[in-house]
Amino acid sequence: MNAEKRLPKPSEILFVLIGFVLIMFLFIVQFGISIQLALLTTWFMIMIVGLRIGYTYLEMQKGILDGIQDGLEAVLILISVGALIGTWIAGGVVPTILYYGLQVIDPSIFLLAAFIICTITSIATGTSFGSAGTAGIAMMGIGASFGFPLPLVAGAVISGCYVGDKMSPLSDTTVMSASLSKVDLIDHIKSMFTVSFPAWIIAGVMFLIAGFIYNDGGGDVGSVAATMGALDDYFNIQWYMLLPAAVVIMLLIFRKPSIPVILFGAALGSVWAFLFQGRTILDSVNILYAGDSITSGVAFIDNLLNRGGIVFMLDVIVLIIFALGVGGLMEKIGILRAISGYMENWAKNAGRATVTTLVGGFFGNFFGGAAYVSLITASKITGDTYDRLNIDRRVLSRNTEAGGTVTTPMVPWSDGGVFMAAALGVSTLSYLPFLWFNFLVIIISLIYGFTNRFIWYTKNPEIEEEKAVSRTATATTIDLESSTL
Asked: I need a surface site. Which of 45, 296, 310, 370 has the fewest CB within 10 A?
């Protein structure tokens, strides 16, 4: 007979959390073992606690499978985007964006331009992965030609990509946050605008200033010319190479399902590789799975464009599955419920409620490894707190995105962190200091919470307090009258 199930004690929760961090540090930093094996090891550590508090292995296995199930859409998107990256490189789409970008973008405003271009792309398509895997790769190539540090360029790209991931009505995380918080989608976006717009303006100014600091306006003319020459030699650069991108963006704008649209865009890339880039039919089709391999003569171009295909995403997919399993295990054995209880007791006002939601979102990314998990943990852990404090759930949905969506690329083993590092060729910890939009969203959300700006209430707290005082006074008077009688 199994022991009766109970919630984990604080000491057991600390054992899991500290053990997780220690395993990740030892495996990755100390011994150079893969993140995938580190995450798999944490499964067994969490299971030790699960067995101790009364769960069977089969029950915990179901928790793992449920956690993986919650994130399978992200896995399908990764497969689709991997195929898209490969064929859009081989079909000349990304090289053409890169070539024309080198012609028209001034080096001194490049970082701002990259931020704006990725913002527009992500808002139009609703996908940070698709935006980074296409326009983002092109921006990385342009930035390298201009001599900018690649982590800084990656920061501008990812910041722009997560504007759309957070704000676009086409984004799955935007829709999911509104749904989990039980808020109308448009009301959710309007609420986020109060945070995202000032964050976007400030981040844009910071990238503009950084552009002037890192580049005097002239750029590395020799490097730019060599890059353009290599692209022109290896690819057929024409305006109609951009048609697959235009078709995909239009379909996503009309709110067609993202996975089939991205796969259709990948198929168009294969067709373009055959029709315009001199690839054979078999080669064009095989690129969908195996990606492309080129030798242009320019080292960083080869490094940038030798990527893509479903195979390119396999390591990322394995990592995400293991990370989702961690989140599922923690949910199953009650760690999330226990933490929710502690946070709810602490959150006595709008500022503290904001902190708990941001922490809950980051917790989901750190221990669950996926944006979907973070949105669930952020909304589940703190949803009742907002109701208890009479805070409108539009604030909950806004803070859920601030703690969940924008912190995803900050965690090296989350789906966003792994994808961005793989697609852009820059490690998560290298680009992390330059995610200025993401950090600003968090900072502004905290400022609003503790200053009560843009915090809406379902009931006016001052009026409710006055009513409560009035009711108490009335009750006291009645008691006095009764005792006198």
From this structure: 45
- In sequence order, what are the residues at sequence separation of 6 or more whose Cβ sits closer than 8 angstroms to the Cβ of residue 110? 142, 143, 146, 148, 211, 215
CA atoms of 193 and 170, how far apart (whole Å): 15
Spell out the residues 6+ positions from residue 417 whose beta carbon is closer than 8 angstroms to its own: 408, 409, 410, 411, 428
* Residue 453 burial (C-beta neighbours within 10 Å; 0-12, 13-18, 19+): exposed
Q: What is residue 484's predicted lDDT score, i.e. its pLDDT? A: 47
Phi, psi of 327 (to 5 degrees): -60, -40
d(CA 471, CA 79): 61
Alpha-carbon dihedral 103, 105, 111, 116, rounded to 10 degrees: -120
Residues 6+ away with beta carbon under 8 Å from 199? 437, 440, 441, 444
293: its two tokens: 């391999």
Q: In terms of residues, how long is the chain?
A: 485
Q: What is the 3-state secondary structure (H, E, C) of 257-308?
A: CHHHHHHHHHHHHHHHHHHHCCCCHHHHHHHHHHCCCCCCCCHHHHHHHCCC
> Which tokens in the block code for residue 2?
């199994």
Q: CA distances (Å), 376 to each of 161, 331, 364, 401, in order? A: 22, 10, 8, 10
Give the residue from 176, 200, 188, 195 showing the smallest Cα distance to 371: 176
Measured at the CA of 64, the angle between CA 58 and CA 65, to 5 degrees, comes to 90
How far is it, in rounded angstroms, from Cα 363 to Cα 370?
A: 10
SS3 content of the chain, % helix, strand, coil (to 5): 80, 0, 20
360/376 Cα distance (integer angstroms): 9
What pLDDT is recorded for position 216? 58
Q: Is the pLDDT of residue 238 over 80?
A: yes
Of all residues in the chain, the percent with pLDDT exceeding 70 is 90
pLDDT tens across 258-297, in order? Answer: 789 889 999 999 999 999 999 999 999 999 998 877 776 6
Residue ranges of the alpha helices (H) in 349-427?
A: 350-368, 371-388, 393-403, 415-424
Give the position of tokens 């009764």. Answer: 482
H/E stretch holding 51 reads helix 35-52
The pair of structure tokens assigned to 397 is 């949905």
Average pLDDT over residues 69-74: 77
Q: Largest Cα–Cα distance of the chain, in whole Å?
A: 103
Amino acid at 313: M
Question: What are the structure tokens assigned to 352, written together?
Answer: 């503290």
| Run of H or E including 109 | none
pLDDT surpassing 70 at residue 174: yes
Q: Is 58 helix (H, G, I), strand (E, B) or coil?
A: helix
DSSP letter for 235, please: S
Specify the residue for token string 């259709």: 264
Find all residues with CB under 8 Å of 157, minimum gap 6, and list them: 114, 115, 118, 132, 135, 136, 139, 140, 424
